[in-house]
Amino acid sequence: QNIESNNGQFCVNIISEWYLDAANHSCGNFASSVDEFDVSGMTKINDCEVVNAPRVKEAAVSYECELQHIHALTNDATGKATTEIVLAKVVRVHVDSTVLMANSDVERPAVDTMQLKPVGRLGGNIYSMIGETVDIPRPKVS
């Protein structure tokens, strides 16, 4: 609802361990009139270059996005829409220098995952954090 009411422009902010508690406070089922920045204590910054939407200052990686499609998923038993999948085009990326890999290319910045410390929401109240990572080269196809 918030995305649609903002002309389809929004930011996706990657949650990192250092602000997980604040980010979790924005996950409530708030009315669209409630400013989740106020509720969570996260800092709103309005420095997007392409979209007219705020982003989270605490996020080391943010994506400026334009809505492409919202797909409602329905409950098989009732036919009622229970959740939605949002598809968007990323039009600008913000990456804080503190999470860039050494010698990263300015045009295609490479993020150091262990510095970013990303957090994933698995469902309900459960989140995951990066433990061990493995870098496996893709096979060469001729």
TrEMBL record:
<keyword id="KW-0285">Flavoprotein</keyword>
<feature type="domain" description="Flavin reductase like">
    <location>
        <begin position="6"/>
        <end position="99"/>
    </location>
</feature>
<dbReference type="InterPro" id="IPR012349">
    <property type="entry name" value="Split_barrel_FMN-bd"/>
</dbReference>
<comment type="similarity">
    <text>Belongs to the flavoredoxin family.</text>
</comment>
<protein>
    <recommendedName>
        <fullName>Flavin reductase like domain-containing protein</fullName>
    </recommendedName>
</protein>
<keyword id="KW-0288">FMN</keyword>
<dbReference type="Pfam" id="PF01613">
    <property type="entry name" value="Flavin_Reduct"/>
</dbReference>
<dbReference type="InterPro" id="IPR002563">
    <property type="entry name" value="Flavin_Rdtase-like_dom"/>
</dbReference>
<dbReference type="GO" id="GO:0010181">
    <property type="term" value="F:FMN binding"/>
</dbReference>
